[in-house]
Amino acid sequence: MPRAIHPFAVIRQPLVTEKGTYLAAEHKYAFRVDDLANKTQIKQAVEKVFNVKVLAVNVMNVHGKQRRWGRRSTRRPSWKKAIVTLAPGDKIELFEGV
Fold first, then answer.
1. Which end is more exposed in the chain, N or C (fewer Cβ atoms within 10 Å of the end residue's Cβ)?
2. pLDDT tens digits, residue range 25-72?
3. d(C-alpha 76, C-alpha 51), whole Å
4. Residue 21, Cβ neighbours under 10 Å: how many?
5. What are phi and psi of 20, to 5 degrees?
């Protein structure tokens, strides 16, 4: 059984990227989400936080990249990304005008 996560803790931050602005024209928005959140929890969180209707949720795990810190080799942490498709007519104002 998945653990219960508060809706405001599921969404970590919006991803404002060049690809994200192109997706916004198709009613799709990208978010960095909690690593343990599933699609149902992400859908409920976006609907509650932004007061919109979510049609679909696609999630992917982004693996951390290898980085150099002086002579030391380190690894950035892995994280989870969600692309949320909204119903036609709905939009999230946070992404407009970026």
1. N
2. 899 999 999 999 999 999 999 999 999 999 999 999 999 999 998 999
3. 33
4. 13
5. -65, -35
Residue 52 pairs in a beta bridge with none
Four-residue CA torsion sign, 2, 28, 86, 15: positive
Q: Supply the pTM of this predicted model.
A: 0.87
Give me 80's structure tokens: 């989870």
Both tokens of residue 14?
Answer: 């919006």
Give the largest CA-CA distance in the chain: 52
CATH 3.40.50.2300 fits 7-88, yes or no: no
Q: What residue type is 37 in one-letter code?
A: A
Residue 38: burial class (beta carbons within 10 Å; 0-12, 13-18, 19+): middle
Boundaries of every domain in the chain: 7-88
Residues 6+ apart with CB under 8 A from 89: none
8 A C-beta contact, residue 34 and residue 10: yes
Structure tokens at 67: 């980085």
